[in-house]
Each structure stands twice: as structure tokens, then as C-alpha cells.
Amino acid sequence: MLLGAHESTAGGLHEAFARARADGAEAVQIFTKSSRMWRAKEITAEDAQTFRAHRDDAALPCAIHASYLVNLGSDEGDLRDKSIAAFIDELERADLLGIPSLVVHPGAHPDNAKGIRNVAAALDQVFAAHRGACKVLLETAAGQGSCVGSRFEELRSIRDTSRTPDRIAICLDTCHVFAAGYDISTERGYESTFEQFDRILGIRSIRAFHLNDSVKPLGSRVDRHAHVCKGAIGTLSFRKLVNDERFREVPGFLEIPPEGNRSCLLRLRKLRAGTAPKASRRVARGRVAQ
User: Fold this and answer.
1) Does pTM top 0.70 for this prediction?
2) Rounded distance, CA 5 to CA 100, Å?
3) CA–CA separation, 242 vs 271, rounded Å?
4) For 268, which DSSP code?
5) Which of 110, 174, 271, 280 is 20 to 30 A from 120, comparing alpha carbons?
6) Per the residue annotation, which of 255, 262, 281, 282 is the catalytic one?
7) What is the pLDDT of residues 236-282, one digit of tens each?
């Protein structure tokens, strides 16, 4: 697995790459705007050119995480209108920067079935307005509150209901699936979870991982990230995951306070067996970034 982290863009979007390299990351995830504000600073042509130059120099695959305010599961009204407009803007920003993947929380609705239909319809509206190449990665949810997408079947329903399923893939968050009740902490549970995922969604639909341990126990339905191997999931799952040949060229991103990135990435690298020589890893990164 390509081991990366969510990095700060303070001082300019391109600054994320220097921080990623300082942390020893092989991939980087960023916000291109404030995660908790609707308003977004414009990305100028100069900003985009600078970002692309730094990206090419670093040779790190990059993904964007959408704003936390976006709720594609909401009913007709102001929140839905703002969410769709903001998500279209996120995709346009990805195109400007040449980033191929945009991760988003599916959304929330008190009626799960209605929420699933709303998410699929919102994605159809977004894709009708945006014809770019960026793929949307629906993030597995922890099941907290009325959030949609904590079961693999729900994500499958969203994809199957959409008129443009080929633009939809998955980002699997280890903390979230564990909190949702998939026991990836044991050998048997790990194998069972990915067998279910493959049967329901197809293992090749996983285009990114969020590598987070869980503060809370299995099935808690609470989204609280811990440093990898230091929470309720533990070491076994992360050792299996970073060495799983099916995910050899899939980026996995830490989502913890940035001061923990370096130590957690070092821990994961120690778990990863048979690390390829530096030159060949760089070639692999180039393929993922296309």
C-alpha cells in the first residue's frame, strides 16, 4: 500500500507536498478550501500551475477531501442546494489541480432509504453539471446519527441508483467500518469483511483508504479516530492491510492531527513487508496519480 496522510495547505495548496515528504508520506490528501465554510477562496491559474509543478516534482498521488458541510442526502431546500453547488465547485477545483479523486461523506437523513435516494439523485445532478474526469469516492460511514453509508449494501444502492455509476468508487475508512460493526481487528473478521465488500461492491472499487484506528469499540457507531495500532482495532488489521497485494497501488491516508503523521507512517512502514526499492515505488506512484 502507498502510505500517506492528510496534510495542511497553510501557506498555499502546494505546501502540502513539502509537509508530506517531511513526514515520509508516499501519498497526500488535502482540502482545497475550508472544510467548515461554504465560501471558498478562488484557485487562480497561477495557483494551479504552482500546485501542479510541486505535485510533479514530489511524484505523490493526491486526493481531495470534500467539505464536511456537504450533505448530499438532504431533502430539497437550502442545504441541498448549497451542498450540490459546493460539490460541483469541489470537482471543478479538482480539475484545475489535476487531481483524480474527490472523497466525500455520502450524507445524512433520518430516513435511511430516502437518504440513499437523495444521495444518488444529487450525484446525478452534480455529474450532469460537471463532465470532468475526477472520480467521486464515497467514504464508508461509522453509522453515527443519521449518516448514510455505514453498510456496504447502502453504498451499493447509491451506486446502482445513480445514472452514472462509473464515476463512483469507494474510500474505505478503517475506523468507520469498525465502528459500523465490521470486525477487521481479527484474522477471521478481516477476511470476512473484505469478502463481503468484494461480493457487494467489488474489491476494485476501493480507490483509497483512510487509515485510522478507533477510540471506541467495535459497533459503537461513533467516529473517533486514534493513531494506527493504538486503538481498539490494533496492529493485526493494519499489518494485513498494508501488505494486502490487492491494495498494492492504492493510497492510504492517515487522518489524525498532523503532528502524529511521521510516527504513524513510520509504524506502518515497519509493518509493511517487502517494501519495493525507492525507484520502483516512484513508478508505482506515478501510475496511481494518472
Assistant:
1) yes
2) 17
3) 7
4) H
5) 174
6) 255
7) 999 999 999 999 999 999 999 999 999 999 999 999 974 444 433 43
6 classed as catalytic: no
130 is catalytic: no
Catalytic residue among 23, 26, 154, 173: 173
Angle at alpha carbon of residue 108, lines to 213 and 13, rounded to 5°: 60
Q: Among this protein's residues, is 182 annotated catalytic? A: no
Whole-angstrom distance, CA of residue 84 vs CA of residue 40? 14
**Amino acid type, 119:** V
Pairwise CA distance, residues 287 & 290, whole Å: 6
262 catalytic, yes or no?
Answer: no
To the query of whether residue 173 is one of the catalytic residues in this protein, the response is yes
Q: Is 223 a residue of the active site?
A: yes
DSSP string covering 176-230: HHHHTT--TTSHHHHHHHHHHHHHHT-GGGEEEEE--EESSPTT-----EE-TTS
CA distance 194 to 152: 10
Selecting among 65, 130, 207, 285, the annotated active-site residue is 65
Q: Give the tens place of pLDDT for each residue, 37-50.
A: 999 999 999 999 99
Q: Name the amino acid, one letter, at 254.
A: L
For residue range 73-126, list pLDDT tens digits in order: 999 999 999 999 999 999 999 999 999 999 999 999 999 999 999 999 999 999
The catalytically annotated residue of 6, 105, 207, 267 is 105
Please pick, among 55, 159, 225, 227, the residue that the annotation labels catalytic: 225
The verdict on whether 105 is a catalytic residue reads yes
Q: Is 54 a catalytic residue?
A: no
Grid cell 445513480 — which residue?
A: 162
Per annotation, catalytic residue among 151, 210, 227, 267: 210
Mark whether 46 is an active-site residue: no
| CB-based contact 21:262 (threshold 8 Å) | no
Catalytic residue among 176, 207, 267, 285: 176
